[in-house]
Design goal:
Elements lengths: L5 E2 L8 E2 L40 H5 L3 E4 L12 H13 L4 E4 L11 H15 L4 E5 L5 H13 L4 E5 L8 H9 L7 E5 L1 H4 L5 H7 L5 E6 L3 H8 L5 E3 L5 H7 L4 E4 L6 H9 L3 H14 L6 H9 L6 E3 L7 H14 L19 E3 L3
Helix pairs in contact: 11-13
Length: 362
């Protein structure tokens, strides 16, 4: 009987190796070993540029204290309202915001095509890249998509990337590390940990492994201030992802700053919280923050900006505005804090249901 042979995969060669079968009874020899997965070395080279215009150091990102997760406004047909977007970004810059997250959860990146997503990053860089750091949310639960979007984002000039761990189709911790290591070589990167959305925590030992890359700018952490302290004690830069905890995170737990939703509305006051310890101001803002997150973000923010007249009252489904009683509550919160502290220059309104546009195809 002919001797059976198997193929053993080693790098790029395929030599024959001895048979696992030694006799006609198909008994295994004492030297038999279980088959090993073929390991194919990655031949992917990052598509990146080192021209001066595109050259941003992770150190330039690590020093940012106030980063706004910027809202994306819409026209009545659901396309981007770039005029309203530009006005909103200019308001942020005018109040001292140092960075913007483009197309994040708050900016509804999950409702954009990748073409829209990269276009908005490019537009932001083109118009504001010299005044504020542009951090593109190019993360995905698909490693292939994350690589492609991140290459494109850096190619159009974004200063850093924001990356989330794979959600819904969750992976192992080893797979999580491999996912992030596939995008880190491309440029400065912020890792975003929000288990309430992804269904999976990024544990500290994973971040410690990723910190071996010089491109890790830091972590946006939503688990809480005790976790933030773990990172700051080990010299890892971290931004609070929770507006209601960010003051204490900054002044008591060592966070560099905050990646904020609330700063869309009151950027000047949020900047003050990050530059001067002010528990009284923090307490004053908590009713606004609680109101914003009464429903999943960005429902509250979209409703608030529409009532301030800063954006059109257009929602891409599945988001819908808050009910009228919450709209009335917001108007009262604005009056309590002071209209002058909020973006825009129109009086706050309580919009009726029929004032809103809900767009399902765009």
């Amino acid at each position: 009987m002919a001797t059976l042979k198997t193929l053993c995969f080693r790098a790029n060669t395929f030599p024959d190796c001895p048979s696992n079968v030694t006799n006609n009874k198909n008994t295994r020899s004492s030297n038999w070993k279980p088959p090993q997965a073929a390991v194919k070395p990655s031949l992917h080279l990052p598509m990146r540029s080192f021209e001066l215009k595109n050259r941003t150091s992770p150190e330039d990102i690590k020093c940012l204290r106030l980063i706004t997760a910027i809202k994306t406004p819409y026209l009545p047909d659901g396309r981007f309202d770039l005029e309203a977007y530009d006005d909103l970004v200019n308001m942020q810059i005018g109040e001292g915001v140092e960075g913007v997250i483009v197309g994040g959860t708050t900016g509804e990146g999950q409702l954009m095509s990748w073409e829209e997503h990269i276009m908005l990053i490019a537009h932001t860089v083109n118009c504001f890249g010299g005044k504020v750091k542009v951090i593109g949310n190019t993360g995905s639960n698909s490693t292939r998509e994350a690589i492609h979007a991140t290459e494109q984002g850096f190619a159009v000039g974004m200063h850093a990337a924001l990356h989330i761990n794979p959600y819904y189709g969750k992976t192992s911790l080893d797979g999580m590390v491999a996912h992030f290591q596939s995008v880190l070589p491309m440029g400065p990167t912020i890792i975003y940990n929000v288990p309430s959305r992804t269904g999976q925590d990024i544990p500290p030992h994973v971040i410690q492994t990723l910190a071996e890359s010089s491109n890790l700018a830091g972590v946006k952490e939503c688990v809480g201030n005790d976790r933030i302290k773990q990172y700051t004690d080990n010299d890892i830069v971290v931004w609070s992802g929770n507006d209601d905890q960010c003051h204490d995170a900054r002044w008591d737990y060592g966070a560099t700053g905050v990646i904020s939703v609330t700063s869309n509305l009151v950027p000047g006051l949020m900047r003050e919280l990050m530059y001067v310890s002010n528990p009284r101001l923090n307490s004053k803002l908590l009713p606004l923050i609680d109101w914003l997150f009464h429903m999943p973000n960005p429902i509250g923010l979209n409703t608030a900006l529409a009532q301030l007249g800063v954006v059109r009252p257009v929602f891409r489904l599945p988001f819908v505005p808050l009910p009228v009683e919450k709209r009335i509550e917001f108007a009262n919160i604005v009056k309590a804090i002071g209209r002058e502290h909020f973006v825009g220059n129109k009086d706050v309104e309580v919009l009726d249901d029929e004032d809103f546009f809900l767009v399902s195809r765009y």
